[in-house]
Amino acid sequence: MIAPSILSADFARLAEEAAAVARGEGRPGSDWLHVDVMDGHFVPNLTLGLPVVRSLLAATDIPLDCHLMIEDPDRWAVGYAEAGAHNVTVHVEAAADPVRLAKDIRAAGARAGLSIKPGTPLEPYLDVLRHYDTLLVMSVEPGFGGQSFIPDVLDKVRTARRLVDTGHLKLLVEIDGGINADTIAAAAEAGVDCFVAGSAVYDADDPGRAVERLRQAALAAGHRSEWTAADADGTSSP
Ligand code: DX5
Ligand code: ZN
């Protein structure tokens, strides 16, 4: 799955930028559209919030993948699920009660995602992750697009992949940060299901074509699990 991040898009033309990566003639299009919500506190950058997400939901059919880089997600995350986001991801470093939060997000009709920063280990959260539908492994420090991929995080991807493949966890493994034509193969080999890409898509002359190129590179290098492929249309649950 490919999830372009609109952080690198033109914020004055979001509907057009979403359309540029949607299904088109001969193109399956993006699986999810990744929306980076930053509050200027959890990360040193400020982007957009629920009003913009609501407008995007009305402007595109691509399922929205909301990545909340905010303090106090226990208070704010459910609103994104209620609005109609497909997947709502919170940071484990910010959540006070991540198990309860996952239940609340799911009860509001979305998938629940848990994100971990590059320096955050996976092991302490394995029990918590049983309540989540996606694990978002950050491969840059959250806050800005266009940073370089941190390959060390692939050990966490391999661990998560093994736990999913052996039935101990049931979730999508997603990666975010520095994914481009040079890095996607290594991430795919490590076992990523869903690739977020901001600058590699929206800095390209043809964002729609960039999405398909990334998908081909990931498929050539990586694994493919059946339920992930079925999941991509946003109609089935894991
Ligand atoms: C960074 C964001 C990413 C960002 C990725 O904090 O979470 O989603 O848009 O941008 P690239 O793909 O350019 O690294
Ligand atoms: Zn993100």
From TrEMBL:
Pfam family for this entry, one: Ribul_P_3_epim
Cofactor note: Binds 1 divalent metal cation per subunit.
GO biological process, alphabetically ordered: pentose catabolic process; pentose-phosphate shunt
Cofactor requirement: Fe(2+); Co(2+); Zn(2+); a divalent metal cation
Keyword Manganese: yes
Keywords on record: Carbohydrate metabolism, Cobalt, Isomerase, Manganese, Metal-binding, Zinc
GO molecular function: D-ribulose-phosphate 3-epimerase activity; metal ion binding
EC numbers on record: 5.1.3.1
UniProt catalytic activity: D-ribulose 5-phosphate = D-xylulose 5-phosphate
A single cellular component GO annotation: cytoplasm
Catalytic residue positions: 36 (proton acceptor), 176 (proton donor)
Transmembrane segments: none
Annotated a divalent metal cation binding sites: 34, 36, 67, 176
Residues at which substrate binds: 5, 67, 143-146, 176-178, 198-199
Metabolic or biological pathway: Carbohydrate degradation
Cited PROSITE patterns: RIBUL_P_3_EPIMER_1, RIBUL_P_3_EPIMER_2
NCBIfam families membership: PRK05581.1-4, rpe
Family to which the UniProt record says this protein belongs: Belongs to the ribulose-phosphate 3-epimerase family.
Function, as annotated: Catalyzes the reversible epimerization of D-ribulose 5-phosphate to D-xylulose 5-phosphate.
This protein's name: Ribulose-phosphate 3-epimerase
